[in-house]
């Protein structure tokens, strides 16, 4: 069951997935994870959801991987009607301070948001505002600077390491890319 909380909401909220439809009749739900391996999402606790400005804590009771899906049992959700009424289409949110610390060369997608994107000709293409999955590879959505001479307001740059993405420096917040200003 969703338990409203006001004193323990995530300080740095990060969406890790979304709750889908019911699985069976006993309140299990399908969860679509944004993590690289779908089962990794269960290791990031506690889970929260937010609806109409109110934070709710979700306590995981059990979980299992079924085919290519993650199936979760949440404490207090006991039938498929509860799932539909209380959980379907809610985001699974964690506090990013609970994410494991990575090595120097590794980073989370969230770390790329706001980074400057500069091409090999040292032209500032803009800042990363979003990352989307396309199936083949992820894509950086870069909003151009207002001084951009190409009059492009938004660029879609495929995140293909060593080919398009030449380097990522989280400390300086700069991503170097092999990408023309014409694209």
From TrEMBL:
Keywords: Chaperone, Cytoplasm, Ribosome biogenesis, rRNA processing. It comes from the Bacteria. Residues 109-179 form the Ribosome maturation factor RimM PRC barrel domain. An accessory protein needed during the final step in the assembly of 30S ribosomal subunit, possibly for assembly of the head region. Essential for efficient processing of 16S rRNA. May be needed both before and after RbfA during the maturation of 16S rRNA. It has affinity for free ribosomal 30S subunits but not for 70S ribosomes. Belongs to the RimM family. HAMAP family: Ribosome_mat_RimM. Pfam families: PRC_RimM, RimM. Residues 16-96 form the RimM N-terminal domain. This is Ribosome maturation factor RimM. It is found in: Cytoplasm. One of its GO terms (biological process) is rRNA processing. GO terms for cellular component: cytoplasm; ribosome. Binds ribosomal protein uS19. The PRC barrel domain binds ribosomal protein uS19. GO terms for molecular function: ribosome binding.
């Amino acid at each position: 069951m969703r338990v409203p909380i006001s004193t323990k909401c995530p300080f740095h909220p990060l969406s890790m997935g979304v709750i889908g439809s019911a699985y069976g009749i006993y309140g299990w739900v399908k969860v679509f994870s944004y993590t690289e391996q779908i089962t990794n999402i269960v290791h990031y606790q506690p889970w929260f959801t937010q609806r109409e400005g109110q934070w709710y804590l979700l306590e995981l009771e059990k979980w299992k991987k079924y085919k290519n899906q993650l199936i979760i049992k949440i404490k207090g959700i006991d039938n498929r009607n509860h799932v539909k009424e209380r959980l379907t289409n809610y985001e699974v949110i964690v506090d990013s301070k609970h994410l494991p610390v990575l090595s120097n060369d590794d980073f989370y997608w969230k770390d790329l948001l706001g980074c400057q994107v500069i091409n090999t000709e040292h032209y500032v293409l803009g800042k990363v505002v979003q990352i989307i999955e396309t199936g083949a590879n992820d894509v950086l959505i870069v909003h151009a600077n207002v001084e951009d001479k190409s009059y492009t307001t938004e660029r879609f740059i495929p995140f293909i390491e060593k080919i398009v993405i030449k380097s990522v420096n989280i400390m300086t917040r700069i991503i170097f890319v092999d990408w023309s200003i014409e694209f």
